[in-house]
Every structure is written in structure tokens, then in C-alpha cells.
């Protein structure tokens, strides 16, 4: 959940300790580039949220009901053989 809140941000009150809205890395990188290292270590549910950004440029902040649009180029890297792991 920490990675999700860092990537997408959150709304105030979304969870204990979320006292004010926080911008995520994608919001900060809007109209720019974001580099994601060790993408192969990312949880599957978070990969699905990342796929939504890649396909339609939308994401949800934690605790928000309306999607936000971003225009971000994503560069990702991993040292794992993802093709082998999928097989």
C-alpha cells in the first residue's frame, strides 16, 4: 500500500494518518517521464493499476472516486526474466 500511495497519491482521510491530500509520482510527472525500477517486483494488483495508466492515461488516488488524467511516458526496468516467469 505504501508503493501505491507514493505512485498515485491519496485524498485526506483515505486512511489513518492521511491528514491532507498528497500528490503521487504520476501526478508530479504529468507531461514528463517517470522511471520505475524493478517493475518485476510489483504486486499484481498494482500492475493492473499501472496498466490503466498505460492504456488510457487514468488513475485513481487512494480514497478518491473520480479518475484523474495524466500524460506520462513510463520507462521501466527489471533484472528478472519476465517472459520466463510468465511461462
Question: What does the model show?
Answer:
There is one protein chain. The protein is of the alpha+beta class and 87 residues long. Helix content is 33%, strand content 21%. Strand 4 and strand 5 (68-69) form a beta hairpin. The longest helix is centred in the middle third of the chain and has 13 residues, at 44-56. The model has no long low-confidence stretch (mean pLDDT 92).
Features:
two-stranded parallel ribbon, 87 residues, single chain, alpha+beta, two-stranded antiparallel ribbon
Question: What is the structure about, briefly put?
Answer:
The chain has 87 residues and is an alpha+beta fold.
Strand order in space, largest sheet: 1-2
Q: What is the count of β-strands?
A: 6
Q: Biggest β-sheet: count, sense, barrel?
A: 2 strands, antiparallel
The termini sit apart by: 27 Å
Low-confidence regions: none
Number of helices: 4
Kindly state the mean pLDDT as a whole number? 92
Topology:
Layout: H1 2-8, E1 9-10, E2 22-23, H2 25-28, E3 32-36, H3 44-56, E4 58-59, E5 68-69, E6 72-76, H4 82-86
Parallel strand pairs: 3-6
Antiparallel strand pairs: 1-2, 4-5
Amino acid at each position: 500500500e505504501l508503493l501505491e500511495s507514493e505512485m498515485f497519491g491519496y485524498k485526506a482521510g483515505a486512511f489513518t494518518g492521511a491528514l491532507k491530500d498528497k500528490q503521487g509520482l504520476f501526478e508530479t510527472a504529468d507531461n514528463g517521464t517517470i522511471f520505475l525500477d524493478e517493475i518485476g517486483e510489483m504486486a499484481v494488483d498494482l500492475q493492473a493499476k499501472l496498466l490503466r495508466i498505460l492504456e488510457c492515461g487514468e488513475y485513481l488516488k487512494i480514497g478518491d472516486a473520480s479518475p484523474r488524467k495524466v500524460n506520462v511516458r513510463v520507462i521501466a526496468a527489471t533484472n528478472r526474466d519476465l517472459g520466463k516467469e510468465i511461462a
